[in-house]
Amino acid sequence: MTSSPSDSTIRYGGPDEAERPLGRSIMRGLLNRCPRCGTGKLFRAFLKPVDHCAACGEEIFHQRADDLPPYLVILVLGHVVVGGFMMTDMAFHLPVWVHLAIWAPITVITALAIIQPIKGGVIGLQWALRMHGFGGHDDSPDEWDQGNGRS
Predict the structure, then answer these.
(1) Residue 131 banded pLDDT, cuts 50, 70, 90
(2) CA distance 84 to 76
(3) C-beta separation of 126 from 63 below 8 A
(4) Average pLDDT value for the chain
(5) pLDDT 10s digits, 97-120
(6) Residue 35 in contact with residue 28, Cβ under 8 Å?
(7) SS3 34
(8) Euclidean distance between CA atoms 106 and 114, whole angstroms
(9) Type and span of the H or E element at 107
(10) Smallest Cα–Cα separation from 65: which of 111, 134, 19, 113?
(11) What is the pTM of this model?
(12) CA–CA gap between residue 65 and residue 107 (Å, rounded)
């Protein structure tokens, strides 16, 4: 099958949808700023996002980051801490209690320090991909998702 210059390209979505660059949105989220404007605060409490951006009015209350931020924290921090522990153990022969006294506080403090930026990055990702209410459509389960009603 050949195509001619008169054939138009099929585009989904409308031309009225504004571009949402993925990298910029994630970076703004990592900096705990609104993924749309980059100036408004993203969180009103430690891990509770604001309902609306104070600068641009973007609705953020409907986002659902769920389990991805803690999973990413465990994934990254686990590799760093285990690698650090193993390198330290090879260089210095210390008792187990000393390793526990060193690595347990480092793990807890670092996890608490990076969970908020990672959650902001996930919110930025969801905003850029128009997920979970950011696309202007209803995210409630479709009729075929509801099952047949039997439990």
Answers:
(1) confident
(2) 12
(3) yes
(4) 85
(5) 999 999 999 999 999 999 999 999
(6) yes
(7) coil
(8) 12
(9) helix 96-128
(10) 134
(11) 0.77
(12) 22
